[in-house]
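This section describes the prediction task in plain terms. A model, or a person checking by hand, is given the sequence of a single protein chain and must write out its three-dimensional structure as a string of tokens. No templates, partner chains or ligands are provided. The sample shown here is typical of the held-out split.
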Amino acid sequence: MRRTSMQLAAVVLAGGLAVAACGNTQHFGAAATTSQSRVSQATLTNEVANLKAAYQTDARKGIKPQRPVGQATQQVLTWLITFKIYDQLARQHQINITPAAVQRQLTALASQARQQKLSISDYVSAAGAVPPDLTQQIGRYFAILDAFQNRLDGGKPPSGQAAQQVLQTRIAHAQCLAAKNLQIDVNPQYGEFDYTSYQVVPAPSKLAAASSPSPSASAKPRLTPPC
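The expected answer:
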């Protein structure tokens, strides 16, 4: 894995809802929908349970989660949507990912985990709020990212800070276009998709919104793609 991918991995993985929405058949049985697929409520419920089980295993080993445990549902749904965004990015840029490319990323993640005396399952769950059974998808995500970076810089990672910023800006723009094409729609009972952070965030309470002053524009999530 190249240094730029390792840096992004550090950011991504480091410490860096029960009733159906009323009147919206699009969300019936879905936690989120896109123009091409959906994340079912059953899938989300199962993966959140997997993450919480991993947290219990981590706790017995003295490993503490680096992300808020109370936001597990939003965090897992964020990952499930992120995988769809990067699959779409790969389709748009005709990037084909081989099993060997995925395995290289998983080997690199396992190496990072060993440096902290963790298994890869411990690492992705405690550091990144990733259910361990989605480890292969994490490997594919990083493989797509690595391949796209190679496409942009010709396999020569930028050395200066300004060049690094240009690369990250181009990646962010491509991610935005992929997400925009997918027309992501999160079931309101699970939150909203914020395009400033590419995360599912809790939806504001209507009662709270009605009784309190409107937050500043900078504090509001961006709910439409900025690209």
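For orientation: Strands lie at 30-33, 38-40, 185-186, 192-194, 199-201.
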